Amino acid sequence: MSVRHDEGVASAGYGGSGANEFTFSGAGTTITFFPATPGPVVAGHEGGELHYQGPEGDLTFFGSQITRLDSALGTLLTVTLRAPHPDVGGTTSTLVLPQVTGVTRQNPVNFETVGIKTT
């Protein structure tokens, strides 16, 4: 298991009603998360989008491929970077997404969080 310290930016898109894009970077990894899949939405891609760029490659996850778990720390976002295999196991990445408020297009919010990669 490895833990990395990430810096995040929450930004609002059209309407400015709250954060609709989160970008995290640290330790050679960049993760971009959209709580709602940017349109036009393709069948099977509903329910959010997460882009992962790091040592495991350039990967994109949609909807049910992103596990969301609400916790006291915020929402835990988990994706499987490498499927489990009997000989080598699997790899997952979990990002802690704290509750972010006060986000507008003119006022993105910067914050720090952690990402955990388990093998």
Q: How many β-strand runs?
A: 9
Q: Biggest sheet: strands, sense, closure?
A: 9 strands, antiparallel
For the record, give the distance between the C-alpha atoms at the N and C termini, rounded to a whole number.
6 Å
What average pLDDT do the residues reach? Answer: 81
Number of helices: 0
Structural class: mainly beta
- Unreliable stretches (pLDDT < 50, length at least 5) are 1-6, 12-17
The ordered string of helix (H) and strand (E) elements is EEEEEEEEE
Overall 3D shape: globular
The portion of residues assigned to helices is under 10%
Q: How do the strands line up in the largest sheet? A: 5-4-3-2-1-9-8-7-6
Proportion of residues in extended strands: over 45%
Write down the Rg.
14 Å
Short description:
With 119 residues, this protein is mainly β.
Structure description:
This protein is mainly β and 119 residues long. The protein has strands spanning 2-11, 21-26, 29-34, 49-54, 57-62, 67-71, 74-82, 91-97, 109-118. β7 (74-82) and β8 (91-97) form a beta hairpin.
